[in-house]
Design goal:
The chain has helices at 11-20, 39-49, 63-68, 70-91, 123-138, 158-169, 188-197, 214-225, 254-260, 267-276; strands at residues 2-6, 25-29, 53-56, 94-100, 143-147, 150-151, 171-175, 179-180, 183-184, 202-205, 212-213, 230-234. By secondary structure, the chain is of the alpha/beta class. The two termini are 36 Å apart.
Length: 279
């Protein structure tokens, strides 16, 4: 099966491609080679490559940066997925599109399932929700994968940030009232493969299992690495950011398990594996 991958050099792409390469004939496409919001450019790429599947990992992911440049955020996260949906329908390709927990407002008590109402708080969340709606309206066979709190090999993430601060200052403050599930990007690979091979359509939540606060996540990182650091919990009100974040981002992944028999491992187990590979 031939799979065309946009955004393949990003955090998710660089971590899942090694697994997917064992299952599919992958064709990575980079930002400089294809403006995914450009219909004509897309027609040229798909007519040349003739993929069975288009896996869209391209996105504007800087949450605060999206507040500063909403036009660019909505173009990449909102309009471009609709363009890809039309192209996939025209060329007979399956579309798999990545989205986010930030489509929710975080007010629900308990994990969010795929049927829960959306109400994004930020430009990033609103742009991603528009992308979801465009995909589902323009391509009924498409699959949308919502994930969250992703980290992995290559590039900067929450883990690399807190370790840098801890080593430089020996102390840091982390919010203790935002909850979610840390997700090792590598673990998304088997889920993507299962959804493609199972020809699943619609929205699926895909994360590691369990949940914690950002503060709990940081403490577990330091504990597993044996780093002695002063880590203080603070409220979200103390941390000034341009974009508002949901307080509860925990996603219910029962649909994934029921439809694919895939059980995502606990976030602590995944974290331990990731940390053993750090230099």
């Amino acid at each position: 099966m031939r799979v065309l991958v946009t955004g393949s050099d990003g955090l998710v792409g660089s971590n899942i491609l090694p697994f997917l390469q064992q299952r599919f004939d992958l064709v990575p496409v980079f930002e400089e080679d294809w403006d995914i919001a450009d219909m004509r450019a897309g027609e040229k790429v798909l007519s040349q490559q003739r993929p069975d599947v288009l896996l869209n990992l391209a996105a504007a992911t800087n949450v605060d940066g999206c507040e500063d440049n909403p036009e660019a955020a909505f173009r990449v996260n909102g309009e471009a997925p609709g363009t890809l949906a039309v192209l996939c329908t025209r060329f007979g390709a399956k579309l798999v599109h990545f989205s986010t927990d930030y489509v929710f407002d975080g007010t629900k008590v308990g994990p969010y399932n795929e049927e829960d109402p959306t109400n994004p708080l930020s430009v990033y969340g609103k742009s991603k929700l528009l992308g979801e709606k465009n995909v589902l309206e323009l391509n009924r066979s498409a699959t949308i994968i919502r994930t969250e709190w992703v980290y992995g090999q290559g590039g900067e993430n929450f883990i690399t940030k807190v370790l840098k601060i801890a080593r430089e200052t020996g102390t840091l403050e982390v919010v203790n009232d935002q909850w979610g599930t840390p997700t090792y990007a590598k673990d998304l690979g088997p889920a993507v493969a299962a959804l493609i091979e199972g020809k699943k359509a619609g929205i699926y939540h895909v994360t590691n299992s369990g949940s914690c606060s950002w503060f709990g996540f940081a403490r577990k990182i330091f504990s597993l690495l044996g780093i002695d650091v002063i880590c203080r919990p603070i409220t979200s009100e103390r941390l000034v950011r341009r974009a508002k974040r949901p307080m509860n981002s925990v996603l219910d992944c029962d649909k994934l398990r029921n439809h694919t028999s895939l059980q995502m491992r606990h976030w602590e187990t995944a974290l331990q594996e990731y940390l053993t590979g750090l230099p």
